[in-house]
TrEMBL record:
UniProt keyword list: Coiled coil
Protein name, entry field: MYO5B protein
Coiled-coil positions: 5-105
Gene responsible for this protein: Myo5b_3
Protein's organism: Pluvianellus socialis (Magellanic plover)
């Protein structure tokens, strides 16, 4: 019981910490948006005082600046995603290695135990109604499989 209470307490602390971090991030985002809005208001007020040609040029400069910032944000996101992709590829290699090790360890299991495990798998498969895909079998079980298919 004490273990479960500690586990729940740890989970609650993690959730509280995540919530506080999320609130802080949202506050920072709101502050950044307020600053951006103030800049846009100032730019708008300045553009109203300009001639029509200067207003168009000023608008184009503002759009170029916005697009440049957006491009930088997208490049940053792309770098982050590429980094995450590399991390996931490394994890995939580790898991594939573990699967290969597991399969190798299964190859060393005595033949009787393997045969018993396969019989159990066949029994489970027979309960299912929808069969799709390919059948995997061991080479030494091929005559038994052919005989079962014929009968």
């Amino acid at each position: 019981v004490v273990f479960f209470l500690r586990l729940l307490e740890a989970q609650l602390q993690d959730q509280r910490r995540e919530h506080e971090e999320e609130v802080e991030a949202l506050k920072n985002e709101v502050d950044a948006m307020k600053e951006e809005m103030e800049k846009q208001q100032q730019a708008f007020l300045q553009s109203l005082q300009l001639s029509p040609e200067a207003q168009v040029e000023f608008g184009l400069q503002q759009e170029i600046t916005r697009l440049t910032n957006e491009n930088l944000d997208l490049k940053e996101l792309l770098e982050k995603l590429e980094k995450n992709e590399k991390k996931l590829k490394k994890q995939l290699k580790i898991y594939m290695k573990k699967v290969q090790d597991f399969e190798a360890s299964q190859a060393t299991v005595p033949a009787e135990r393997r045969r018993h495990e396969r019989n159990m798998q066949v029994a489970v498969q027979r309960k299912e109604k929808d069969f799709q895909g390919m059948l995997e079998y061991y080479k030494e079980d091929e005559p038994l499989l052919i005989r079962n298919l014929i009968t």
